[in-house]
Amino acid sequence: MDALTATLALLSVSFYFIAAATVARSLGRRDAIPGARVQMLVVLALLLHGLVLSDMLWRPEGLHVGLFSIAGLHGALLALLALLVNLYRPVHGIYLIATPLAAIELSLGVAGHDPTPPMTAPTPGMELHILLSLLAYSVLSIAALQAILVHWQERALRVHRRGLLMALPALQTMERMLFELIALGFVLLSIAIATGAFLLDDLFAQHVAHKTVLTLMAWLVFAILLLGRHWRGWRGRTAVRFTLTGFLLLLIGFIGSKFVLELVLPRSL
């Protein structure tokens, strides 16, 4: 990776951390969150992040979809979704988690070396499957962060603390947004699974069997949660536990499998 790309990555990481620090400083001083300033910082970080990704993912020899390049792409999607969520309804507290994670993932993408060979001339269907899978994972990542914020907010309300509450809407609004994110992520995950079943010869082949099983388990967890919300009115701690459990299954299946296949197994051979 050339010096220009490394410089752009450094600037992007800096803007992400400045955005998080701006929110944290306002919360610490109990001031109003400068939403427009934070959004501008995130937009600048995303623009630079996108330029770095273009060099990281698309190479003359093909499309790189290894662990580190995917981490860089997921970081961009995470920051973008956090920005879109705040444009829909201000939840500035989510920047405290999303932007540092985006910065860390971009740093991993720049510093890491993907041993996986690039995909030469991937079909449009395969590109769509990869994009849907990443979108589903990213939306459900934001849902997991939202669940953590809901948990913190519930605890703060019980002990009558403020701080983070200043950056959050009412608890009922936070829970409604949580289920909106889960529903969107569930739809994207369902489509990604369906396209994978159509495009891949064998979803339970040896090198993807564990990923398929864990993804289907996560899909089932989110399906049960949405049904429980509809029929039983599940909320609060139950929603948080189901959300984090489902996301953890996705995390292990998606990131854990790539880590083992790309970094652990090659060293043991």
Report low-confidence residues grouped into runs of 5 or more: 259-269
Q: What's the domain count?
A: 2
In DSSP terms (H or I, runs of 4 or more residues), the helix count works out at 8
> How are the strands ordered across the major sheet?
1-2
Q: What do the pLDDT scores average to?
A: 82
Number of strands: 2
Q: How many whole angstroms does the radius of gyration measure?
A: 19 Å
H and E string: HHEEHHHHHH
Distance between the termini: 28 Å
Strand content: under 5%
Structural summary, described in words:
A hairpin with a 2-residue loop joins strand 1 (58-59) and strand 2. This protein has a two-stranded antiparallel sheet with strand order 1-2. 78% of the residues lie in helices and 1% in strands. The chain is flat, with a radius of gyration of 19 Å. The chain is built from 8 helices and 2 strands, in the order H-H-E-E-H-H-H-H-H-H. It has helices at 3-29, 35-57, 67-88, 95-111, 124-158, 171-199, 209-232, 236-268, and strands at residues 58-59, 62-63. The chain is an all-alpha fold and 269 residues long. The chain has 2 domains: 1-115; 122-269, no CATH class.
